[in-house]
Amino acid sequence: MTMVLAMDHRRDWLPCAAAMLNGDGGQIYLLLPGQTTEQQLFAFRKLRDCFSLDMIPNPLTESSGVITEHDGCPAIRIELLSGREKPYFINRAGEKRSVWLWKMGLLTIAKPDELRALIRQADGLVYESQRSCNQDLTFDELKKAFLRINKPLGIPQQLTMGMINRNGLYTNLALILSDQQLFRVKLCWVEGTARVGRLLAASELETGWVSMRAAIDAQVEKLGRARGKRKNAAQGSPFDFPPRMVRETLLLLPRLMNFESQECIVLRFYDDRMELCIPGGFMRGHAYTALRQGEAFCRNPRLCEFMGEIHKGC
Asked: What structural domains does the chain harbor?
């Protein structure tokens, strides 16, 4: 694909360049009519600055430029390869980050599923290691958790944990641990031991990952008391399940949970047991029979490592 555009129309050629990098590559001629040699060199330096500042990741290694002519007019010819760090975002100040694609000859903004496909192509299939589509993240709750175990949370720690990738972008692990990502949790107290028993109490909450355990602890105790009052249970505590049992069960979440699923986490309490329903199916390459035989596997190893460190200090 070849495009011919005016150098001054950056809003036109920068999305075209990003779409080529996100696709099969191409070339762009940026016309410089009536400019002197010195002005052309200045425009060439400006072009490199635009790539460095207005696009993430920096595409200079996948592009090359030369001052030439096009139909007798001075121009900069940009050769663009298919990028190795897809997707390439337009990152202009004051504008929402956008990913552009060529589809049927038209320049369009990528849909969420197309964006995820590009990310998998560059970052692999492990969700927590892929770059996050949301890069505007804060970590207030995470910083509090690190303070409780007397550890700092700076850029070096985030790089070591895998929250920031080699291009300086937040990964999905950072998204999971951020204040912006909320998870829905449903808690149900069921009468008796049958799965179709009468529902005694239920609640639904939204919480961040770092504060999830404390939020569930408080809600479980509240629902347990409501259950005890409804049953008029004179014997024992209305809170039948010890907090340690709930906390240990929640440690299974990072091992098995598929964070790409939009389903909610469900905790069901019966008279004789507690059930945890985790969103997502089996990992690729694993089957139900292997799970029954005791085969251990982990979907989110970095998150498990982090949770182990945090729970040591709690």
From this structure: 2-111 (3.30.950.30), 127-177 (no CATH), 183-281 (no CATH)
